[in-house]
Design a protein that fits this description.
Largest sheet: 2 strands, antiparallel
Structural class: mainly alpha
Number of helices: 8
Order of helices and strands: HHHHEEEEEEHHHHEE
Shape: elongated
Helix content: 40-55%
Radius of gyration: 23 Å
Oligomer: single chain
Distance between the termini: 36 Å
Strand order of the largest sheet: 1-2
Length: about 290
């Protein structure tokens, strides 16, 4: 299984034991994997047929788009979960600690060297390479090798929630218009109550995806990490918008966003970094030399 997956995730270490650790991870993950498909099924049966006749081209087109978006959301979420972004301890042993060490530090919990921009995650129990944050929906940290999948997960979630909101909002307005003939909440039909629940879930999904994009977009474009925002002596890793995006989506970034199984090798390894000075006149390498091979 892992051997076949390596064809689509070249030069990436894959997690052998994918599991949700914290209760919050389990809750958020289950809400996504259970509520989203149930909501989609309701959309196909009750909402979309009200505006497009089942069997027609418009209905088939909308359903196909929704399914493709849903597949991309789930596929990118799974990709986030199976890629191992923890610091490779075996690779760390090949480095030599000397005065040329720049921005490396010693993790007291792991009792090992931690590369620049790598931090220890209490939930995952290890140091994460280029750690941005711990995502409860994927149950893992977002870092060097899976930032691309997390970004696509947010983008496709936003597009999917927006498309569903377009139909749900129209249906919600029509449904609420029917309530003027009722005087009590008990007069609402089961379908109206069900749609109000689905509409609420869609609204939460829309707010979440929109808020996360607003939060992460400037960070991604500037080549920063969430954990670096509050650092007093933070270094400048901004290489320009093009190279910042290339550092996330890889060498084939123009097509890497289409589907997570499209291989796109990252230009960096997460251990060696270039620092840009304030005047952008010089650059230094934030790394340490490897021991020479005998």
């Amino acid at each position: 299984m892992l051997a076949s997956l390596n064809r689509f995730f070249p030069r990436m270490r894959l997690r052998r034991n994918v599991q949700l650790i914290s209760k919050m991870d389990i809750f958020c993950h289950l809400v996504l994997v259970i509520c989203l498909p149930v909501s989609l099924l309701y959309e196909f049966i009750a909402v979309i047929p009200k505006y497009h006749s089942p069997g027609g081209y418009a209905y088939a087109l909308i359903v196909t788009c929704v399914l493709l978006l849903y597949i991309n959301v789930m596929a990118n979420m799974i990709a986030c979960m199976i890629v191992d972004i923890s610091v490779d301890c075996d690779r760390i042993k090949s480095f030599d600690v000397n005065d040329e060490c720049v921005n490396w530090r010693h993790c007291k919990i792991c009792n090992a060297l931690a590369p620049p921009r790598s931090w220890h995650c209490a939930t995952c129990g290890t140091c994460i390479l280029t750690r941005d944050h711990h995502c409860n929906f994927t149950g893992c940290c977002i870092g060097h090798q899976n930032y691309r999948y997390f970004t696509c997960f947010l983008l496709y979630s936003f597009v999917l929630s927006s498309l569903l909101m377009f139909y749900n909002l129209k249906y919600f307005i029509w449904s609420m218009g029917q309530l003027k003939y009722h005087t009590h909440f008990s007069d609402m039909t089961f379908l109206q109550i069900l749609h109000n629940s689905v509409f609420t879930l869609n609204l939460i999904y829309q707010i979440f995806s929109t808020g996360m994009i607003i939060l992460h977009a400037p960070i991604v474009l500037k080549g920063e990490l969430i954990g670096e925002r509050n650092l007093k002596d933070k270094h400048n890793y901004d290489a320009g918008i093009y190279y910042n995006l290339r550092g996330i989506f890889g060498q084939h970034m123009h097509v890497a966003w289409i589907f997570p199984l499209f291989a796109s090798q990252l230009p960096g390894d997460g251990y060696n970094w270039k620092l840009t000075t304030k005047d952008k006149s010089t650059e230094t390498i934030a790394t340490i030399r490897s021991r020479p091979t005998v």
